[in-house]
């Protein structure tokens, strides 16, 4: 689309031509009036005046060029192209008409014809700013950034004085990663008067792409201070803050974008993503509910909703959303994984295993998938199958903690407490902050009647997770066995005030972060 500076320049060229042609005075007046109406945006009046000028053979090419320019602004590009072609054929020296004709071809997707016309203009007028600017952008769009700057170089001072020109230079310098040159362009942009808001957003995007993300933030924050905030300003500013890992400001601006357009699924999803990263799952779910209402067939929205709903243990809602996501996008691996997790959380173990085993058949060397399959077998109390997959997961990823932990738990559940205790100790050598292994070790020691070491390990587990109802309950039982009834009562009372986590839920949560 014609930029504001380019459009004004082309209109000005018509005016200069109109005043210089040897036409009757009344015809020249009509051409002059047409230009003035165009500059005021009164296209109907401009068209009427230019049409009257068609009757004078001497002014006809200029009148056709003016009408072509009017059609361009009316977005009637094909008609505009035809009129401009006639004008140029009648008078090849109408450089402004050639520039508009090149623009018409570009807007119609005829990029090669547009480029050819711009090069013809440069042959006629080597100092033509608009032709050089257009060709510089063409080279930049093809990744030829140095060539773009070479073309722009003779008219760089003029380009720096307009939004269009600064944009053309910024595209090339951003592509080359010329940070210092980009900083200079930012200073020029900040010195402009009345740069269109949409152009400032586009310029900020180029600046950010060129590595000056903080400068891009400064440009858009200035728009906000001037009261020129909009959806695009807020949405892109949020993205810049996200690049800086400033989640609070990113979220605030995405939420501001939602205020401007509460149907924007990308903005709704971004708020949800940030909330999820910050552990604010209820907030994430509320924005995903809104996104689902706007895009019920979007599999990514359904998947995101399902993932967050699972974390909040809304199993039925999660399952429904994940089933919908898989229906829209069959075979999608991440969706199948999460649906398998939802099935496991709902104790639909066979259905869960079917999904996980299908994934494992496609990726047999995936440690997380072996863990997932092993965990479901563990919940089914199919310890042999569980141990086989958990051991394979350990082999594929020796540095992990979960598979060895559940192998130790299997040994404990099978009554092999001495073996289990040894396995827990091995885990804690490499992962001294793993509270569940301290608890597991304490239980195995308790069952072997090693009460003091058991109590010490329960206390280590509680130091890492003081809100574990299960650990406090088991410590209370140990203290009863040791005859320490008052302390036992205190631990059991504390356990009652906490939510006891079922082993099923504990294990399912470990599946919510697939590798």
Write a concise keyword list for the protein shown above.
515 residues; mainly alpha; 31 helices; elongated; disordered N terminus
Molecular structure report:
- The protein contains 31 helices and no strands.
- It has helices at about 5-20, 25-40, 45-55, 60-75, 75-90, 95-105, 110-125, 130-140, 145-150, 155-160, 165-175, 180-190, 195-210, 215-225, 230-245, 245-260, 265-275, 280-295, 300-310, 315-330, 335-345, 350-360, 365-380, 385-395, 400-415, 415-430, 435-445, 450-465, 470-480, 485-495, 505-510.
- Mean pLDDT is about 90; it is low at about 1-20.
* Number of helical regions: 31
Quote the average pLDDT. Answer: 90
- Principal-axis shape: elongated
Distance between the termini: 45 Å
What are the segments in which pLDDT stays under 50 over at least 5 consecutive residues?
1-22
Note the main sheet: none
Tell me the Rg in angstroms.
Answer: 35 Å
Strand content: under 5%
Helix content: over 70%
Give the beta-strand count: 0
Helix and strand content put the structural class at: mainly alpha
